[in-house]
Structures are given as structure tokens and as C-alpha cells.
Design a protein that fits this description.
Layout (H helix, E strand, L loop, with lengths): L1 H24 L7 E9 L2 E2 L2 E8 L7 E6 L2 E6 L2 E14 L5 H5 L4 E5 L12 E4 L5 E6 L14
Parallel strand pairs: 1-9
Antiparallel strand pairs: 1-2, 1-5, 3-4, 3-6, 6-7, 6-8
Length: 152
Amino acid sequence: MMLTTQFARACQAVAVVAIAAGLMGCGPNDGMLNINGTVTMDGEPVEAGSITLTPVDGSSKVGGGAFENGTFSTRAAPGEMAVQIRGHEIVKLPHPTREQVERGLDTERHEIIPGAYNSASKLRITISPDNTTFDFALTKDGKIPEGMSADQ
């Protein structure tokens, strides 16, 4: 009798796992695509930051997320996107107080990406099922990489 009860519980557990696994693959198709790429500044990977992809025509969802070590992988809707990239470096305060050190407040984040790529960005990309990899070769002078401008 005990063996039958254990067998029944094991079967229930397997059924629950199978249903859960099946549901994870199902769900509404949100129309978003997996995209990836790199973010460099003057040829060097940007250590940490974020990328935001906003539909130019306002008809779909905003995409984006954080990136590390100059690489990103996120989801975004197909279409023309306005791109904002922010990057920062962590800088130690030159003369932190004892309290700042004890509280872990002895560093600051400094924005290292010029405004031409974030607050005043003219970066544009077009995402499609055939176009999902983007390499943003940024420069300190704010020059827009070829093929990534609203003016083209």
C-alpha cells in the first residue's frame, strides 16, 4: 500500500513538472526579437551601462537593458528605433570620510558616454528578423557611426 502511495505521488510530481515545462514554452507572442551586440568607446569595450531602444513611430514597446563588458543581449520590437546608450565608470572618492568608507559610499559613478549617444542621441537602428546584431562603435567626440543616424 505504501509503495502504491509513493508511486502515485511520484506520478503527480512528474505530471506537474511536465505541465509547467509545457506552459513555459507557450504564451502570447509579444512580437519582440532577441537582439545583441557590442558597445565600445574609442575601440575599447564599455565596462557597464544601459541601452534603451524606443520606437521612432511610437507604435511598439520600448526595449533595452543593462550591459556589461561591452556586450548586450536584450529584446526589442522590430522597426526603426531611437537608441540611447549610457555608460559609467566607478571612481573612488579622493578623500572619503570614515563614515563614507564604512557605509560603502566612497565611490561615485561617472557618465563616460557623450550626450550625442544618450540625452541628445541621434542614433537610429532598424531591427528586423534578419537584422538583430548591432555594434555601436562610439567615440569621445560623439560622431554617429555610419548607418546609425536619423539624418541618413
